[in-house]
Design goal:
36% of the residues lie in helices and 18% in strands. The chain contains nine helices and ten strands.
Length: 247
């Protein structure tokens, strides 16, 4: 498979065959699969065609069809995995959706705090025949990595992410009103971490949750907010609760 195809390949295909050494099945077990926290090998050819901009004071990667706005398009909210909007591979994947006729907005849902490169760097190939000492080192490294991922997930709370996404959606509706009207709403796609938020944006959330506040038991009868998206698709979406996560 060509490098460009590997980089832009949709994550759902990772469940069948791994692209990263030591990859795990999608969202299986107590931690996120490698594909959710690790960038694919960056292709030597092909460059992103979009640009980093701001919507409602939130950093976003925006990419559009080459014939937009001369031909009608639809608005797509792209919610990435843990590597964020500056990942070249995420940008290339967004560009692929743009080539299919979508105006794509990929927000920095982590507010400048994506999973750090020393955790997401895929250029670490395990020794095929490690010594006992190397095995111990590898075990310690895996433990440290899991701890760093859990600490990072603890900072990416629903109360932090949901209000940010609502701001971006409202701002995008204004900036790309023609695309919203053409699609009769906002579409969304989410990978791994982003998949969970596609599900939440497509749900009727209690007003307190929609505003980024924790839902208390006595508040379960509050008025609910309407879904923020018309339709959504996810790959490896999960409900992350630190070391206990469910598909």
């Amino acid at each position: 498979m060509a490098e460009h195809e590997v980089a832009t390949r949709a994550p759902e295909s990772d469940a069948q065959d791994s692209l990263v050494a030591g990859d795990t099945p999608a969202q299986e077990g107590a931690s996120m699969g490698e594909h959710c926290v690790t960038d694919r090998p960056t292709p030597a050819t092909g460059a992103p065609t979009g640009e980093i901009s701001k919507i409602a004071d939130v950093d976003v990667y925006i990419t559009k069809p080459s014939d937009y706005p001369h031909l009608p398009s639809k608005l797509l909210l792209f919610l990435s995995n843990a590597t964020g909007i500056h990942s070249k591979n995420n940008q290339l994947q967004a560009d692929k959706y743009a080539s299919e006729g979508f105006v794509v907005v990929m927000p920095d849902q982590f507010a400048g705090d994506p999973l750090q490169k020393n955790v997401t760097d895929p250029n670490t190939t395990p020794d095929s025949n490690p010594s006992m000492i190397e095995k111990v080192k590898m075990g310690l490294a895996d433990t440290a990595k899991s701890f760093m991922i859990d600490m990072w997930l603890a900072r990416q709370s629903q109360e932090k992410v949901i209000p940010l996404l609502h701001k971006v959606i409202e701002g995008a509706k204004d900036e790309f009103a023609d695309a919203v009207a053409n699609g009769d709403g906002v579409y969304a796609v989410g990978y791994c971490f982003g998949g969970r938020y596609v599900l939440l944006l497509g749900s009727e959330l209690p007003d307190t949750v929609a505003k980024g506040q924790a839902l208390k038991d006595e508040e379960k009868g509050v008025v609910k907010c309407a879904p923020q998206i018309k339709a959504g698709a996810i790959a490896h979406g999960g409900s992350y609760q630190f070391s206990s996560r469910k598909d």
